[in-house]
Structures are given as structure tokens and as C-alpha cells.
Design goal:
single chain, 10 strands, 23 helices, 4 domains, Rossmann fold, about 550 residues
């Protein structure tokens, strides 16, 4: 017999569920009720029901919060969601929490009992599985797909031993001598942009959609089981199985399937991916070799030839070639970053990237290695210059980079170059802040410099590099203090000085122009007219006329 808990703040709905449910036929001997998520959690703890029916919109604690707690503290508990709100947030949490069913109000007898039968069927299956030897050593909260995923991952990581795990291997058909296995790998090149634009910034939902497309495209010849690689960002692994068949035939079929998959993902979601296929095998434990071959195929994709479209990697190994490294440029990059000269650092990095671009072949694997190397080298530079460790990525991995708001997508070499520049800019900013903390700054110093050097070519970059402050911050600070922008103030000082010099009739306008820092007399005259609405000559004549009076 089973125990069910209904959680809803509306008494009429709780009563309707109690009346409509075929409890006797479903072997439910106790139906409990709670009015909100908080009291529902208390009843969970006290009565330990087998199934919970929960409303998504309630006071105190709504269904989303309730499901999150249940997912963490009661992973074996089955849930049915009822809501009058067809809201994406609710649907997403329901998918994430793996609820049995999602019903919209008003509830009818047929839909309710269909969902209840589905839940009771799962409970019956769990009870039956518990009595079988295969599940004595596994956690009961693990669904069959999740268990298969863990088995495949253990094989791929070469950590699963055949003799001691025969029961587990039976779940993937390893005892069937006619079954053939193989793997193909997908790397989602524009994962972040697609996740944010099409999947409400939910990475799990994106992976679910990709895996679902792969599985749905399976046919009688090839059956696919797909899942995201938890240890490799952007990567989805698909294990394909076939009953019999020659290796070359299976390899051809898997390549055709992969081509359809990358094309479908592109047309449905705009996903740009790089795929690789591994050689089929007759032993499930050889899947590690097939996966490594597929992964190597993806890593071998030539980034220089990518045009922002899906691609399948080559089967052949890459030829030996020179490895591009930033190590030889570390010293000069350190000097420019310490001096606050980001533009020069970008020029140095740009020259290095240009050399890479003309090398003829630069693979995705090369790109991954270069990013990791760059982070390691720049971490060392930053630490030497006083940047706190918590301001630097712990590794070159994407999760570490994204934790510092660095977008890591690249589906072309140009996008890869932009990523390297973003990494450089990030470290430059952290180094600038660290060094600026040790340097005193007074905005009056800038005003004094302009007052004494107004005749020189004054650029704001002179001050940003000296004081390690951003252009925007420096200009804002100066205007707040003196009521002028920096360029405006330079112009004001020059024009005030021009008036004084024009009052001296012995000075030629050409001489005055040069004394104020203008190389061109005409440019000075134009600037003076724009400022005072009269030309220098007209101003001098007016002053002469005033003197005669």
C-alpha cells in the first residue's frame, strides 16, 4: 500500500483531488493534506509519503522552492506538479526535478488518474528492482538512464572492471555477443550564446535538448544513448549500439547519423558544433578507445578553416608540427602590463596571433592548449604584480574563465582571437587595479600639468597610463572637480592664453599659433573663431579700437 501527500493552499482543489483519485484501485491507503510548502515539508519528515502532489503557486513557499528542497533532501520521492500557470520557470524546475507529470488546472479525473497510475507504476517498479540482486549495491534514487550514463562514463574513463561489475554491464547489453558499440562526440562551439538566447541561460536544458535530438534521430540500425560529459565543457557524448554489422559499415552509418545530427541542431536551434566519430567495437569495455578516437577527431578540426558552421572532424591523425607558445613573449608582456600600456600588450599578442594565423594549420586542440597556457602564464605575471589569487582563474578551464565573466565561445579563428584579447584585457585590468592601489592620485595634478604644458600635444592616455585609471573614470572625476572635460579645459587654457598674446601687437598671429601648440595658423584661427565667434584678426582689431576710445 502507498501513502500520498497533497500540498495546495486551496481547500476546494485538495478536496477535488481526494474525490477524483482512484485511491483504492491504485492501492493508496492514506491521503494526507498540507496547505503550503512549509507545512508540506514538515509532513514529509513526519509521515514519509511515497508520492507528493504539489501546487506550484502557494504562499510561504511556492512549488519551485519546494521541488528544489525535495530534489536535494528527498531524491527518491516521486512528485506530480499541478499549476494554473503555464510558466517557463515552473516548467523548467519540473523538468530539472524530474517530476512524474505536470498537470494544468482545472484538474479532470482522467488526467489525474493517468498521472497517478504512472507514479504508482514507477513505485511498483522500484519495489521490484529492490528485490533483485542487480540493485543491491546501487543507490535507489538513481534512474536507469542516469545509471547507464555512469556506467558508460566509467568505461570511457577506464575505471570499470568487467569481473566485478557484471551486473552493471548487463544493463547496457554487454552480455549480448551480437551487440556492437561505438561513440561519437559533439563539441558545441557557440554554447554560451545559444544557451542565453534560446534556453534562458539554462545549460542543463541545452544539453537535454541536444541529447534528445540525437536520441530521437536513432533508427533500427543504430540506437543512441546521449549525455553531457560532466568533465568536459561543451561536450555531448553519444554511445551508439547496433546488432551485428561490419565495422566499416557501422562507421559509415554513424558518420551519416552524425552529419544529420549537426545539421538538425543547426536548423532547429542555431547550434554550431564540431563532431567526431569513433571506430565501432564488439566489447563494451573497448568504448574507451572509440571515445578517444572520436574526441581526437573533434580536437583535430582546423580552426583556421572554420566559418561559423557545423563541421565533422577528420579520421586521420594530425601531422607533427611546431607548437605555438607565448612563453617567449612573457617578459615583454609583463613589462607592458606593469606599465599600464594595454595597447602595446595587444600589439604584441596580435603579432603572435598573426603568426599563428599564417601557420597553415591550427586545431581546436591547439586552441584549448593555448588558452590554458595563457592563463597559467598570466596568473604568474599577475601574482608577481600583487593581484590577489581570488581575482584570477584557477585554471584555463571554461568554468574558471566564465566565473570571471569571460565569454568563451569561438566558432571561427577571429572569435578565438577575440577571446585571447578578452583574457588579456581582464588581466590588464586586475594588474592596473593592483598597482593603482599603491599609487597616490590627485586630480589637481592633471590640471596643473595642463596649465603648464598647454602648448604640448596633450592626450588623456598620458594620464590613464600614469595613474592606472580608466579613461571614463578620469574624465568624470576631472569634470566633477573643475566643471570642464579634460579636452575642454585644454581648449579653455589655450584660448585664454590666446587673448593675452593677441593683446601684444608685436606678436604675429602665426607666432601666437605656434606658441599655443598649433602647427597650422588656419587651424588656430578656426579654433579661436569657434570659441569666441570672431577671428584672431577681428579680435585684435576690436581691442585696438577699444584702446583708442
Amino acid at each position: 500500500m502507498y501513502k500520498v501527500l497533497i500540498i495546495d493552499d486551496e481547500e476546494p482543489l485538495r478536496e477535488a483531488i481526494s474525490i477524483l483519485g482512484d485511491w483504492e484501485g491504485l492501492q493508496v491507503d492514506e491521503v494526507l493534506e498540507a496547505t503550503d510548502g512549509v507545512s508540506g515539508l514538515e509532513m514529509l519528515k513526519a509521515h514519509k509519503p511515497d508520492l507528493v502532489i504539489v501546487d506550484m503557486k502557494m504562499p510561504e513557499m511556492n512549488g519551485v522552492e519546494f521541488l528544489r528542497i525535495v530534489e536535494s533532501e528527498y531524491p527518491e520521492l516521486l512528485t506530480i506538479v499541478i499549476s494554473g500557470y503555464n510558466d517557463f520557470e515552473f516548467t523548467r524546475q519540473a523538468i530539472h526535478s524530474k517530476v512524474v507529470d505536470y498537470l494544468l488546472k482545472p484538474i479532470n479525473r482522467q488526467d489525474l488518474n493517468q498521472a497517478l497510475r504512472k507514479a504508482i507504476g514507477l513505485l511498483e517498479a522500484k519495489r521490484q528492482v529492490r528485490s533483485e540482486s542487480i540493485t543491491r549495491n546501487i543507490a535507489y534514487n538513481m534512474s536507469l538512464p542516469k545509471l547507464k550514463e555512469k556506467i558508460y562514463l566509467s568505461i570511457i574513463e577506464r575505471s570499470l572492471k568487467k569481473q566485478s561489475n557484471k551486473a552493471f554491464l548487463a544493463l547496457i547489453g554487454a552480455e549480448d555477443e551480437n551487440l556492437r558499440y561505438g561513440a561519437f562526440v559533439l563539441r558545441i562551439l557557440n554554447m554560451e550564446s545559444i544557451r542565453d538566447s534560446r534556453f534562458n541561460s539554462d545549460t542543463e536544458l541545452l544539453y537535454f535538448a541536444v541529447a534528445n535530438v540525437i536520441n530521437e534521430m536513432s533508427d533500427d540500425r543504430l540506437q543512441c544513448f546521449s549525455f553531457a560529459n560532466p568533465k568536459q565543457e561543451r561536450e555531448v557524448i553519444a554511445v551508439y549500439t547496433s546488432r551485428g554489422g561490419y565495422p566499416q559499415e557501422l562507421l559509415f552509418q554513424s558518420e551519416q547519423l552524425l552529419k544529420k545530427v549537426v545539421s538538425t541542431l543547426s536548423s532547429l536551434f542555431g547550434i554550431i558544433s564540431a563532431g567526431g566519430v569513433g571506430t565501432p567495437c564488439s566489447d563494451a569495455l573497448e568504448l574507451a578507445d572509440s571515445y578517444e578516437a572520436a574526441s581526437s577527431s573533434v580536437q583535430a578540426v582546423d580552426l583556421l578553416k572554420l566559418t561559423g558552421k557545423a563541421v565533422i572532424g577528420p579520421q586521420d591523425k594530425l601531422p607533427n608540427r611546431d607548437v605555438h607558445s607565448l612563453t617567449g613573449r612573457v617578459s615583454i608582456l609583463r613589462s607592458t602590463l606593469e606599465a599600464g600600456n594595454l595597447n602595446q600588450a595587444k600589439t604584441i599578442l596580435g603579432e603572435f596571433i598573426k603568426k599563428v594565423r599564417t601557420s597553415g594549420l591550427f586545431s581546436l586542440g591547439d586552441a584549448d592548449r593555448m588558452i590554458r597556457e595563457m592563463v597559467v602564464l598570466f596568473n604568474d605575471i599577475a601574482l608577481e604584480l600583487g593581484v590577489p589569487a581570488d581575482k584570477m582563474p584557477s585554471s584555463g578551464g571554461e568554468r574558471a574563465l566564465r566565473s570571471f565573466r569571460l565569454q568563451t565561445d569561438f566558432a571561427t579563428f577571429d572569435e578565438f582571437e577575440s577571446l585571447l584579447m578578452r583574457i588579456l584585457e581582464y588581466y590588464s585590468e586586475q594588474i592596473r587595479k593592483s598597482i593603482a592601489g599603491d599609487r597616490s592620485f590627485n586630480v589637481d595634478d592633471i590640471k596643473e600639468y595642463i596649465d603648464n604644458h598647454y602648448f604640448e600635444d596633450i592626450k588623456i592616455s598620458m594620464f590613464t597610463e600614469k595613474y592606472f585609471l580608466s579613461r571614463e573614470y578620469l574624465m568624470k572625476l576631472f569634470k566633477q572637480q573643475f566643471g570642464y572635460g579634460i579636452h575642454e579645459y585644454v581648449q579653455k587654457v589655450r584660448m585664454d592664453k590666446a587673448q593675452q598674446l593677441l593683446d601684444d601687437s608685436s606678436l604675429k598671429i602665426q607666432d601666437i599659433s605656434e606658441m599655443l601648440g598649433y602647427k597650422d595658423k588656419n587651424y588656430f584661427s578656426k579654433a579661436f573663431r569657434n570659441y569666441y565667434s570672431v577671428s584672431p584678426s577681428e579680435y585684435r582689431n576690436q581691442r585696438a579700437g577699444e584702446g583708442k576710445k
